[in-house]
Amino acid sequence: MDFGFSEQQRDVQNLAREILSDSVTAEKLSHYDDYKGERFDRELWSKLAQAGLLGVAVDEEYGGMGFGFFELGLLVEEAGRTIAPLPLISHLISSALPIQQFGSSAQKQKWLPGVCSGETLLTAALSEAHNDDPAEPYLTTAKVDGDTLLLSGQKTNVPFANIANRILLAAKSSDGVVVVLLDPKSEGVSLTTQQVTTYEPQFVVNLDNVRIHAEDILIAAADGKAAMQWIAERSTVALCAHQLGASDKAMRMTASYTAERKQFGVLISTFQAVGHRAANCFIDVECLRLNTYQAISRLDGGLDATNEVQIAKIWAGDVGHRVSYAAQHLHGGAGIDRDYPLWRYCTWLRHNEMVLGSSAKTLAKLGKRIAAGDAFCS
Amino acid sequence: MKVEFTAAQDALRKELRAYFDELMTPALKAECDEAMGEGGGPLWREALKKMGKDGWIGVGWPKELGGRGMSPIEQFIFVEEVMRAGYPFPFLTTESVGPQLAEHGNERQKREIVPKILAGECLIAIGYSEPGAGTDLASLKTSAVKDGDGWLINGQKMWTSLAHFCDYVWLACRTDPDAAKPHKGISMFMVPTSDPGWSCSPVITLGEVRTNATFYDNIRVPEDAMVGELNGGWKLITSQLNRERLSLVNFGPTAEMFNNIVRWAQTLDLPTGGKLIDEPWVQINLAKVRAGVEALKLVCYKQAWAMTEGNLEMADASAAKVYGSEFFIEVYRLLGEVIGEASLISRRTDGANPIASRIERLYRTASIITFGGGTNEIQRDIISAAGLWMPRASR
Description:
The structure holds 2 protein chains of 2 kinds. In chain A, strands 1-4-5-8 form a 4-stranded mixed beta sheet. Chain A starts with 6 loop residues before the first helix and ends in a 7-residue tail after the last helix. Chain A folds into 3 domains: 114 residues, Orthogonal Bundle (Butyryl-Coa Dehydrogenase, subunit A, domain 1); 95 residues, Butyryl-CoA Dehydrogenase, subunit A, domain 2 (Beta Barrel); 148 residues, Up-down Bundle (Butyryl-CoA Dehydrogenase, subunit A, domain 3), CATH 1.20.140.10. Helix content of chain A is 52%, strand content 16%. In chain A, helix 4 packs across helix 7. Chain A is of the alpha+beta class. Helix content of chain B is 49%, strand content 13%. By secondary structure, chain B is α+β, with helices and mostly antiparallel strands.
């Protein structure tokens, strides 16, 4: 049991925090509100690339730093702390990491150097309508046609599908689940814009007999389901890390506000009712932090982490919800005023809560595992 | 960061689990049940001495103090396992006062008392609260007045749990009634319960757990009964409480109870068909407990780790206490719901299900720790001030 950061982890954390906190300001974020501009800070993207952070968990032979999943998690936590306008999770965790893990050497050679340099943008389509289990695609099917596949169906809430070079997605085939890298410019692909609560560009991806060539098939049917489980766990825990950064920041913003705001001639932080609500956030955020780090640490060490990831996601959903409303409430009107930076955090806390399984849904999944005897306390 | 047990720690947990499987004989279990989870009986004492002799009580203590020289993490693993086994471990003595004596005690205390603690031969109760001093502890009135080469102690304490079978009370006394601030006039003493001026009367609580009012009538103790510096008691009290808070919310027993109830629900046939565990609401209740226990485990081990590193944060200790104490109440409710009306049946009923009757009792005892060991309101004050730097009202 070691809860301390290694020197390498501290370096990554400090570097990410420095770059992100310097570059992401409320003023800049306001440019993306109401979809005024595409929520993607390309200048910041290349800064992260230059610092090596986009390749933090990519092998050195493809231009990365060759660090582990824990360091990548710390980068995502910092992105959450600043709610940076960057597609870090969909690009790095849901797409690049699986290519590195499951891809052929040609696929790795083709995509990973661009991932690190920031010139390639990847994304992943993990959700379908009323189905947020990435390992069980129902509405997207694949038919084998020679050494190619023909895909039909629909994925929803795909971030940056319009500008991504490839979209990782899974489809049901006659003998399992295949995972492919879809070129959104292929014939038969059409995108429908979705406007979402965070103003992130998201799309419904419609597939009508889209041909996937052999070089873009990432995982064959026999291994697809397990691979998607692998991807889902890492993507889920990345959402937890993002939630951790965002909720920690929203809580601290709130604590600072109560230490400046006076009513009845005294700082409002001196009212016990105010202090106690903030203290509840502190406990909540600590529980989220430890469960998130545990899940990341286990995945980083190659250990089974299904229970730990589910538990972290339950905490991420609950804590995000509670911190969001406590933060708004303790700010009073300032919390909802669009000229004050808190409100954007609230939409991201909501996003992370709902994506890839809410608390209720995840509790049900964990409950099934408990019933099956797979989740005893050790 | 590596949030998992090392191979050696895993082995230690296994070794301890086997050790306690053997130690917890049916007779000892029955005696502990009779003592309402408090201990104090003859078999209980014997088992404690055995743990001492086998070198477990001080597993995480430095070797020069008679321990095995492992870290606070191993010490916590031991406490987790002993409590998981259902043995009412005297953690106030071993985990909170003991380390204070080892750190701040004088030569005699270190020579005579500390080794006895590690041998399982010395038990200590905590004497802080008084009829008029609870949460506002610094207003305590029990006095110690200089009397030649010793001190004369007079007063009354409340909620002196375990005192009826302890050897000493770790007693907070006012030594300077004129101190500029009340908490600056307090000193700590080790007062033997064998003194004729010492007496106690039982207070029986909702959960049938006995606690005590204790009385101090002209008790004369020598100079070296004082712990630490004259009027320097407050620091010892707060640091003892930080340690106590961690022990109060040990997750071992809850983890064990969760596992037992899952196994029970897996096999229980419903008269309407199917097993109890097939019910969706049962699965949800169990999942809520499971997610909460995991957080408690991590909160506890993070603190054990912080102690190892020497950087235990006050806000974290308070957060663990608030979270754990309120979670326990929730656990007993959620698991009680799973068990249903059987969770109202006392163990005194012939053929009572031991798992269900345990919940019956725990539900009645759970409220103690939301205010005991420092009420949760004060803990939340500490968290917002020390953890979030929020200025607080002066008191």
